[in-house]
Design a protein that fits this description.
0% strand; elongated; 171 residues; mainly alpha; single chain
Amino acid sequence: MVAWLTEHTLVYGSLGVLAAVLLLPALEAALPLVGALMPGQTAVLMGGVLAWHGQVTVVAALLTAVAGAVAGNLIGYAVGRRWNARVLSRIPDGGQWQRYTERALGLIERRGGAAVFVGRFTAVLRTLVPALCGATRMPLRRYLGWSLVSSAVWAPAFVLIGYAMGPAGPG
C-alpha cells in the first residue's frame, strides 16, 4: 500500500506528496471509511521517508501533516455535532464497529478532552473520536485545544519516524 501511494503521489512531484500528507489524515478523521481504507498515518510516514530523499522538506511535511490532522478533526467534530443522532444510529449493532464506538464513547466520558489526545494515536479511535466528540457536544474550545496538542505531537512523531526510515525507503 505504501509503495502504491508513493508511486502515485510522486507522479505529481512535491505537490502530490504534500497533498497526500494533508488530505489523507484529514479525510481519515472526517470520513471514517477513508481511514479504514488508507490510514492517514501511512501518508505521514511516507512524507517523512520522501523528505529524507529530498522530495519535500521536513518542515513542509511536518506543517502539512499537522494541518491535515487538525482540519480532519474539526470536520469530523462538525459532522458529529450537526448530525449527532444519525452518526450514532449508523453504527451497526454488534460486531467490531459497535465495540470500537462503545470504547471511544467510554474514553470520551472518562477522560474528556484527553480522549482526543489518546484517540489521535490509536488507529480506529482516530477515525471515531472526532465525530463522537461532536455528537456528545464536547465544548468546541476544549476539543480544539486537545486537537491542536495531539496533532502537534502525532504529526511530527510520524514524519520523523518516516524520516528515520528514509534510508530503507524508495530512492
